[in-house]
Specification:
Radius of gyration: 15 Å
Structural class: mainly alpha
Number of helices: 9
Distance between the termini: 44 Å
Order of helices and strands: HHHHHHHHH
Oligomer: single chain
Number of strands: 0
Helix content: 55-70%
Largest sheet: none
Strand content: under 5%
Length: 152
């Protein structure tokens, strides 16, 4: 069975997240597009770009784990999506260890964090939320060994 093309992966992700908005009330697909583009701009592979489109799909219940398991996607894409899926009750250290242990996932998370921490996106949030998220993103960057991270 041939794998889904990047265009098909994008269409699946856009459809799956169509009813969702981000914390600022923007269509969630804008975040997915920014992450996929961030992966591409950082020299990511087609598999990493596909994972960028799908990185929040299982976590947000936009697509099921069963869908992902059965999808016509290379195993590394599935592995990255699962590595990037934060589990209920999981601490950041556990989560970031899994990302670091999964080939390709760190670059996708780097693009995700870059878009999440974009000052223009954060500016529309209330100060308490902005402060909490900025600290959280810095901690994750630190745990992943990325520039701009704070010590864990």
């Amino acid at each position: 069975m041939p794998y889904l093309t990047l265009t098909e992966v994008e269409a699946v992700a856009r459809t799956a997240h169509a009813a969702q908005t981000d914390k600022a009330g923007r269509p969630y697909a804008e975040h997915l597009a920014a992450v996929a583009e961030g992966v591409r701009a950082r020299g990511g592979s087609e598999e990493q770009i596909a994972a960028g489109w799908l990185h929040d799909s299982v976590e947000d219940d936009a697509l099921s784990r069963e869908w992902l398991d059965a999808a016509a996607l290379p195993q590394p894409v599935k592995d990255m999506v699962l590595a990037l899926t934060k589990r209920k009750g999981e601490d950041l250290e556990e989560y970031t260890r899994r990302i670091l242990a999964t080939p390709g996932a760190r670059l996708v998370k780097e693009a995700d964090l870059a878009h999440n921490a974009d000052p223009a996106r954060l500016a529309v949030l209330d100060e308490a939320t902005r402060t909490r998220l900025t600290a959280k993103y810095a901690k994750v960057r630190g745990l992943l060994g990325l520039p701009g991270g704070s010590p864990a």
